[in-house]
Amino acid sequence: MQYSSRFLELNIPDSFLNVNKIPDATKFIAIIYICLTTSLFCIRRSLYSKLLLEDPNVDYGLITSPILQMVPSQIWKYPTSLVLSNFIDTKAWKVAVNLLNLVIGGSFIERNWNSSKEMFKFIVVLGSLTNLLIIVLTLLTSFTSKKVTLDVPLDGNYTILIGFPIIYRQLLPETTIINLKTPHFLAKNFRFKLLPIFVMFVMTITQIIWFHHFAQLFSIWITFFASWSYLRFFQRLAPLNCPSLPTADPQNVQETLIGDASDTFQLIYFFPDLIKPLLRPIFNFVYDVIVLKFRIIKPFHDVDIDIGNSIAESRGAKRVTTVEERRRQLALDVLEERMVNA
């Protein structure tokens, strides 16, 4: 889909908007999402109507359903909420955004992955494990900070809102979404690779300035790091239809396609250039401890990185040039110039 005016250009690939046939996992998750979100709304409205007869000043926002909603103080009684909260939302804007994101974006992702199992694992399994980690961190933090309350439900359905932009960046890195033409000082190509950090910035600022919900802030960033970590190190997909892949034994190729070892998918490249010098030593230290020292995560080999780079470049990603490569290329250029002049 393309749209052009004097102010902006909108460009979204037709393959992204193709929802003629919604894949199986996306369809199943969308149906469950609609059913459980609608059920939660009906339950809360019913309780609100009953309580309103007893107390005219009752606050609808304080009415919860711990079976479906992830309430830290009630998690021991209702552990099912760790899973079911992946399928519910209480805010109208988030219902609309997530449903649209799931139907359109989920269909695009599942077709590219060619795996209903991976779609289910990413949204439900990874989402549930992330929710468990969020609950544990919230309970621990509540002992040291009074600002963290345990009776307010946490949003357990950030995987679609935060995780999907990371996947869009992976599959469509250099594709332009919006090209602002005017005013000139704001002229900018907004590409899919900028979408994750844009979403994180907006949601972080919103929580800090307006809602002051610090436990919810944990949810946002834990979901971001969990989603990236899974895609980077653990996801298993069938060999991709990429002409640059080696034509080796299919079983061996399958083993090399665990995660995304491409240079462009490094965590540091999700953040603005301005703060990269501050983040790089932190990320390098964490990588050295988790991957190189304790081997909690298997490190990538050169062949993994080469295959990851080939796949990323086939998707349109620009090759990352390291300092050593730039120096080597500069030396070759100087040598070639001297040979020509000689």
TrEMBL record:
Transmembrane portions of the chain: 25-43, 119-140, 160-180, 192-211, 217-234
Taxonomic lineage: Eukaryota, Fungi, Dikarya, Ascomycota, Saccharomycotina
Single Gene Ontology BP annotation: retrograde vesicle-mediated transport, Golgi to endoplasmic reticulum
Keywords per UniProt: Membrane, Transmembrane, Transmembrane helix
Pfam families assigned: DUF1751
Domain of life, per lineage: Eukaryota
Organism from which the protein derives: Saccharomyces kudriavzevii (strain ATCC MYA-4449 / AS 2.2408 / CBS 8840 / NBRC 1802 / NCYC 2889) (Yeast)
Subcellular location: Membrane
UniProt gene name: SKDI15G0510
Main location: membrane
GO cellular component entries: Golgi apparatus; membrane
Membrane topology, record value: Multi-pass membrane protein
Protein name: YOL107W-like protein
InterPro entries: TMEM115/Pdh1/Rbl19
